[in-house]
Amino acid sequence: MIKKYFYVFLISMVPLIELRGAIPVAQAFHVANGDFNMIAAYIIIAIGNMIPVPIIFFFARRVLEWGKDKKIIGKFFTFCLEKGHKGGEKLKEKAGKGLYWALLIFVGIPLPGTGAWTGTLAASILDMDFKKSVWAVMGGVALAGIIMAVVSFAVASGVTAVAG
Predict the structure, then answer these.
(1) Does residue 84 contact residue 124 with C-beta atoms inside 8 Å?
(2) What domain count does the chain have?
(3) How far apart (Å, rounded) are the C-alpha atoms in residues 121 and 91?
(4) What is the C-alpha separation between 102 and 90, in angstroms, rounded?
(5) Which end of the chain is more exposed for a tag (fewer CB within 10 A), N or C?
(6) Rounded to two decimals, what is the model's pTM?
(7) 74-96 b/e with 16+ CB inside 10 Å = b?
(8) Taking the CB of residue 65, how many other CB atoms lie within 10 A of it?
(9) How distant is the alpha carbon of residue 66 from its chain centre?
């Protein structure tokens, strides 16, 4: 059982997949094995999704800047920098003074490329305040988790009803 919690914890830390992928996996574990606690899984997944945030905020931009000129990794690092910069500029344009609320919503919308990794990278690139950014990303992770939990539950209920 612990392996399954650890598995969803690790999934929640993977860029682009993050919480959005870990919650449906946890829901599948719950449907397959009724004693898999979704509340505990949600907390573990949220923690796993937030662990990389300080590292990304303080080091990712430096690493990406360093690696953008390198032969093998340059294209990917440049893509990450451009994605973070574009996401950050969109946030700045649309949000104005509500930049941190916009960051929360950006992270909270469960679409590919809008998670904690991208939001934190954008905050770092835009030199936003660390504490305010972390709170905004945490709120976004919570919002995305609620949305994904509701959607996963609805899909799992529908599949279970049809199957059986």
Answers:
(1) yes
(2) 1
(3) 12
(4) 10
(5) C
(6) 0.82
(7) eeebeebbebbeebbeebeeeee
(8) 12
(9) 24
Is residue 136 within a helix (H) or strand (E), and if so which, with residue range? Answer: helix 130-163
Inter-residue contact 19 to 141 (CB < 8 Å): yes
DSSP for 36-99, written as a single string: S-HHHHHHHHHHHHHTHHHHIIIIIHHHHHHHTTSTTTHHHHHHHHHHHHHHHHHHHHHHGGGH
pLDDT tens, position by position, for the chain (164 residues)? Answer: 799 999 999 999 998 899 999 999 999 998 888 788 999 999 999 999 999 999 999 998 888 889 999 999 999 989 888 887 787 777 778 777 889 998 999 999 998 888 999 899 888 888 899 999 999 999 999 999 999 999 988 887 777 677 76
Residue numbers of the domain that contains 71: 2-163
In 3D, which of 30, 2, 25, 1 has the Cα closest to residue 13? 25
Measured distance CA(59)–CA(70) in Å, rounded: 17
Query: Any idea what the Cα angle at residue 132 is, between residues 94 and 83, rounded to 5°?
Result: 50
